[in-house]
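Researcher: Sequence recovery benchmark, item below. Answer with residues only.
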């Protein structure tokens, strides 16, 4: 079992920044890939970014150049730095162990115009 706990969401004005964090605990497979997804109003949960154990990253086109995913393997933590936020970034952000059924509970991000 793997537990994932997200934090760092909140309300921010358009153009602002937020940093999300996800702490993993339990029996964590290694190596692993961690990812962020988001559920925006009226949509399914969509991919945002992922990072491998070696630090390789991939981003959704909609967030490239604005979001940065990073990880601290020693602390079992993955973070998502979100800059230049837009109202369309509003949603619930989830972290997941890529390829598994383990998901966090989500953290709400609201970007006001």
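Model:
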């Amino acid at each position: 079992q793997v537990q994932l706990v997200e934090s760092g969401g909140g309300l921010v004005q358009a153009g602002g920044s937020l940093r999300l964090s996800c702490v993993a605990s339990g029996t964590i497979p290694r190596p692993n890939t961690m990812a962020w997804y988001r559920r925006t109003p009226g949509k399914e949960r969509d991919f945002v970014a992922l990072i491998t154990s070696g630090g390789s990253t991939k981003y959704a086109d909609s967030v490239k150049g604005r979001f940065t995913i990073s990880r601290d393997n020693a602390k079992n933590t993955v973070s998502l730095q979100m800059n230049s936020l837009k109202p369309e970034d509003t949603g619930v952000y989830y972290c997941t162990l890529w390829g598994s059924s383990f998901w966090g509970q989500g953290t709400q991000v609201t970007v006001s115009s």
